[in-house]
Amino acid sequence: YQILNIHYNVTDGASYPIPYKSAPVYITVGDGGNQEGLALRFNDPQPDYSAFREANYGHSTLEIMNKTYAFYH
């Protein structure tokens, strides 16, 4: 299911996604740069709301073609 919003509890680092079937899907590709270098450590185990994680450099393009089709490359 998609996630409508995520509430972050900054005291214990937990997050609680709220399922909502009409919510938009957000794709987080990365950040614009990091002086500490590539982030190699992830939370373990991987949260249920996280579909994929990869520590890598690169770029991507997301083209929204119409309301039912998008091209990610």
Automatic annotation (TrEMBL):
Q: Which GO terms describe its molecular function?
A: acid phosphatase activity
Q: Which SUPFAM superfamilies match?
A: Metallo-dependent phosphatases
Origin: domain of life? Eukaryota
**Any idea where the Purple acid phosphatase C-terminal domain is?**
23-70
Work out whether the entry's keyword set contains rRNA-binding: no
| Pfam families per the UniProt record, alphabetical | Metallophos_C
Q: Which parts of the chain span the membrane according to its record?
A: none
Entry-linked InterPro entries: Metallo-depent_PP-like, PAPs-like, PAPs_C
| Keyword terms of this UniProt record | Signal
Is-annotated flag, keyword Signal? Answer: yes
- Name by which UniProt lists this protein: Bifunctional purple acid phosphatase 26
**Organism per entry:** Tanacetum cinerariifolium
